[in-house]
């Protein structure tokens, strides 16, 4: 009886060894499940990040996000985005442009200011620019005029276009085709359109950027369907959070059970702990790439690596 009791008591050294093994396995699991990702669009100049941007950037790194392009949506925002790149060199990059919502604020000196901002090596794209006929915060004719000027500017400086389009597909195509012989590469950011629209943009050589919008897409001919049919080639796909917007609500009833099951505990831990509807963060990017891969029925590592290579190729990240 005494012998059996002695056998049931663990040696303290053995316990320590087992604990070390468990910790090592956890570290190995974390490393193995950490992707190498690029967030091609995050609005980190937004005031919602004014108090804890250091923590936001660190969380993104911990989640596997290696590069973030800070979106410029106005002249002032573009200046601030460039400033942030100097605070986080090698991690943050920027774009410079005027969003269609702010097209009405365009003045004669905007072209030269954006051109100067875009001349900096940390500024890797012209935009966010384009057309938004859904909300029409600026008159449509003004939007088209300002957008065309920014496409011309991108052609002049030779930097990629970061494009925004809502309910304006035909006019977007018409303006871009004016510059088809000299237009630099471009990405249609936060795509939410139809199959026909996606195929047209791909035919024009554009990249397609996808966000957490996936969770609420309920169209029979929308982004989910496009992914399920495999219509976006991996070498034309990019991913982004559009933070603090486009929170991927993975608990939503619109997401099928098999998609939810494809989401890793590690990725969900970042999303559930740090992101909300009110403030999404770049650390939600792993959940987004896992959703995309699940809808495509492709290995998530393959999709993650392809989107990262595409971003490096498009924007010239080091």
Protein architecture, described:
- Belongs to the metallo-dependent hydrolases superfamily. TatD-type hydrolase family.
- Keywords: Cytoplasm, Exonuclease, Hydrolase, Magnesium, Metal-binding, Nuclease.
- With 318 residues, the chain is α/β, with parallel strands linked by helices.
- It has a single domain, classed as TIM Barrel (Alpha-Beta Barrel).
- It contains 13 helices and eight strands.
- Strands 1-2-3-4-5-6-7-8 form an eight-stranded parallel β-sheet.
- Helix 3 (53-63) links the parallel strand 1 (37-42) and strand 2 (65-70).
- It is globular and about 50 Å long.
Unreliable runs: 1-9, 23-32
Run of helices and strands: HHEHEHEHEHEHEHEHEHHHH
CATH-assigned homologous superfamily: Metal-dependent hydrolases
Structural domain tally: 1
**CATH architecture classification:** Alpha-Beta Barrel
Question: Mind telling me the CATH class?
Answer: Alpha Beta
Overall geometry: globular
Gyration radius, in Å: 22 Å
Q: What is the first-to-last residue Cα distance?
A: 67 Å
Which percent band covers the strand fraction? 5-15%
CATH topology: TIM Barrel
Q: Helix fraction?
A: 40-55%
The largest β sheet comes out as: 8 strands, parallel
Structural class based on helices, strands and sheet pairing: alpha/beta
> Which strands sit side by side, in order, in the main sheet?
1-2-3-4-5-6-7-8
Number of strands: 8
GO cellular component, one term: cytosol
Organism: Ceriodaphnia reticulata
InterPro entries: DNase_TatD-rel_CS (IPR018228), Metal_Hydrolase (IPR032466), TatD-like (IPR001130), TatD-type_Hydrolase (IPR050891)
Pfam families: TatD_DNase (PF01026)
